[in-house]
Amino acid sequence: MEQLDRFFENGWLTILFQFTAERQPVMALMRKYHSVPMSLADACLVRLAEMNPETPVLTLDRHFRIYRKNGRERIRSIMP
User: Fold this and answer.
1) pLDDT at 76
2) In 40-71, which positions are buried (b, 16+ CB within 10 angstroms) versus exposed (e)?
3) Global pTM exceeds 0.85
4) Residue 54 to residue 19: CA distance in whole angstroms
5) What percent of the chain is predicted at pLDDT more than 70?
6) Is the peptide bond before 80 cis (omega within 30 degrees of 0)?
């Protein structure tokens, strides 16, 4: 936890996401994947992947093999 805090403090890691501005696309994703089901956190990550197409998602969640960004595009992800 402390190392993660240092990453933010040093500017090595940033999260530029305003949920209020992205609420409608996030909620649309949750409706689309309601049978998976998609959590709010997952929907926010998928939306971030749509907004940052070159950046992979680091996750342990296997659902990211199912989720698609921009409708049909696979999400580049790093899964150990």
Assistant:
1) 94
2) eebbbbbbbbbeeeeeebebebeebeebbbee
3) no
4) 21
5) 100
6) no
